[in-house]
Amino acid sequence: MPADSPTTPARGSEPARPLILASSSVTRQQMLRAAGLEFEIRPARIDEAMLRQSLAAEGAKPRDQADALADAKARKIADRNPAALVLGCDQILALNDRVFARPATPGEARAQLLDLRGKTHHLFSAAVLYDAGEPVWRHVGVARMTMRAFSDAWVDAYLSRNWPAISASVGAYQIESEGIRLFDRIEGDHFSILGLPLLPLLSYLALRGWIPS
Predict the structure, then answer these.
(1) C-alpha dihedral (201, 202, 203, 204), degrees to nearest 10
(2) DSSP tally for the chain: helices H, then strands E
(3) Is 90 one of the catalytic residues?
(4) Is the pLDDT of residue 5 over 90?
(5) Residue 13 has pLDDT above 80, yes or no
(6) Of 39, 43, 164, 210, which sees the most CB atoms within 10 A?
(7) Which residues are CB-contacts of 174 (< 8 A; sequence separation ≥ 6)?
(8) Strands 183-187 and 40-41
(9) pLDDT digits (tens, 9 = 90+) for 15-43
(10) Could you give the CA distance from residue 61 to residue 126 in angstroms, rounded to a whole number?
(11) Contact predicate 108/64, CB 8 Å
(12) Which residue among the candidates 47, 67, 79, 90 is catalytic per the annotation?
């Protein structure tokens, strides 16, 4: 499907302005639908790995990397749809200043989980909203995630049960399913952990009158 081909809008209350989600994330789509928003899905095709490497080389912190990636996605779609509101999103997992990518193989997933085992990492979930081709709102939600000291045998069994579903998740876990058993403690907004700071977004849309309040 071409990058900018609109899909069928999600059902829900119709916003005062057309809203485009510049993401193919099923989880983000589900959150927006559950909140009663109507939107189109037009994933932004950018070279995330190259942009992330460039930002890291410039000394950008993980939080700033998430914000910049969300901005790049929103801007790409907004440039082609100047009459719409465009929402770009990105999530970065960082252990100190080390950034993790989505695992491509079960071996990579296992290595990530063993690196995170018994430690506290951060999830940075960024959202940027463009209107008339210009950024008008941005937010980065932050969560602290502390993994328990699970055994090698348990993580191997976990991977055998959950691969390839967890390959779509940075850190190789999904807290909405069995991945919750990896953790001792979670501090932060639930929606941000899933990849979208939904409550601040809804507050801003209501403040501007773009959704009923």
Answers:
(1) 50
(2) 7, 7
(3) yes
(4) no
(5) no
(6) 39
(7) 162, 165, 166
(8) unpaired
(9) 457 899 999 999 999 999 999 999 999 99
(10) 13
(11) no
(12) 90
